[in-house]
Amino acid sequence: MTASPQPIRGMNDVLPEAIAPWQHLEATARELLGAYGYEEIRVPVVEHTELFERSIGEHTDIVEKEMYTFTDLGGDSLTLRPEATAGIVRAMISNGLLRGARHKLWCTGPMFRHEKPQKGRYRQFHQIDVEAIGFAGPDVDAELIALTARLWRQLGIDHSVRLQLNSLGTPEARRGYREQLVSYFRAHEVRLDADSRRRLEGNPLRILDSKNPDMQSLVAGAPVLTDHLDAASRVHFERLRATLDAFGVPYTVNPRLVRGLDYYSRTVFEWVTDALGAQDAVCSGGRYDGLIGQLGGEPTPAIGFAMGVERVVALMAQLGEVPAPAPSDAYLVVQGEAAERAALVLAERLRDAQPALRVVVNLGGGNFKAQFRRANRSGATLALILGEAELRRGAVAVKPLRREAEQTDCPIDALPHRIDALLAAARRGD
RNA sequence: GUGGACGUAGCUCAGCUGGUAGAGCCCCGGGUUGUGAUCCCGGCCGUCGUGGGUUCGAGUCCCAUCGUCCACCCCA
Fold first, then answer.
1. Nucleic acid strand B: bases within 7 A of protein CB
2. What is the pTM of this model?
C-alpha cells in the first residue's frame, strides 16, 4: 500500500456511487436561490493571507492554527480560503460594486482548514454560501432563514434539523457585556476548567458554550447576553422573531450561541441536528454589519450563512432522502467490426432524434454474454442488438430487459422514430 | 494540538493460546459456436499498512512510524 498514491489527509474523493446526493443538493439549492433572487458569484480559492486575518479575526482558532498558508514564488503570503465570506466581500470592494448598491449572492466550492479530521469535519470541505449585502434587516434576516427552512423541506430533512437563534448586539454593546462576563467568571475562577480559563483571556463568550457538564451550573448563573442588548439591536431581534413566528418557522433562542468568527453582529443563527454525532451544525451564519467597512469598503450592512455540504449530504444519505440515479434507456449490444461501426452511427442518429435519450453503446468488445450482463447491470430498459446477422437484414433486435417479452426486430432506419414507442411499450409491459 | 479504537485481496470479513494466508462479493472466461438478472466450473487479485525487534519460526507478541475512524478543542 505504500507504493500506491494516497490523497491528502482529510481530503476526500467523491466517487460516482456517492455523487447523487451532492448533485441533488446542488441542483435544489441552485433553483431555490434563483427563485429568491440570488445570483451566483465565483471567486478565487486563494487570497492574500491578510484578508482572512483581518476579516475572521486574529484570535480565532481558524486564523491561529487552521489556515493553509504558503509563500508563493513572488514572496507573497497566500492562503487557501477557510470560508467564503471574506473573498466575496473582497470581490465587491475590488470591483467597485458597493456604493450603496445591494447584492444577493451565492457561491459554492471547497474550503480548507487544517484540522484533525473526524465525522463531518474535513480539511477540504464544501460549502454553499449565501450573502445579502447592503440590507440592514431584519427583513432579509427573516427571508434568508425562510429560504434555508424551505431548502430542508425540499430535501426532506426538515424533521431532523432545528433552528437556534441569538442576537450578539452591536460590537459596542457586546464589549460592555463582555466586561461583566469576565468579572463574573473571575469571581468564580476556581470553578473554571482549564479550557475555560484559557478562554477567559481570548474569548470569554465561548465559555458559555462549554460542553463540560461541571460548568453548567456556573454558566447558568452568568449574565445573559440577550439582557444586555442595545435598544436598536433589541428591536431588530424582536422584529426578526415576529416575522419567523408569522412564517411558522420554529426556533429556539439560545443566548449562548456565539459563533466562532469575530465579524458577527446582531443576528446569528445555526441549524443543528442530532443525527450526525459531534459535528452538529449543518448551516450557520449571521449578520456582519461592520466587516465591509473594516476591510476598506464603504460601510455596508450585510448578512450571510454557510451550509456544510458534506454534513447535509450525510444527513440526506442517513435519512434515505437520495434520489435514485436515472438508469439508461437503451444499451447497444454489438458484434463484428462493420456492426460496431453501424451501432456507433445508429446511436448518434438516436441522439439526434431524441436528445434526452440515455443510450449506452457497448465499448471495448466482449462476447454476447458479457455484453448482456453489462446491459442488465446498467439498468437499461432495452437491449438493442446489432450483430452481423442483424446488419445483413438491415435490422436491430430489440429486447426488453425489465420484463418477460418477445425479442422483436426493427429496421435500422426506423429505430430513431420508433425508439420512444418501444421504450414506452417496454415500460408499460405490453 | 490532545485522547481512544482499529489497519489481512478492489469491497465485506475469517484466521484458536505464534507453525510461513482463506471465504463471499466484484471483475474476466467457460458450461449455452449470439442473449442478462438464477445455477455450475474455472481464472485474476495479497511483499497480512510500513520499518525494526523477540523467536528455530510472526498475520498473530513487543517498539516505532504512517494511515483511518471516533471524541475533545473548535467548527460547515
1. 1-3, 27-30, 32, 34-37, 47, 49-50, 67-76
2. 0.90
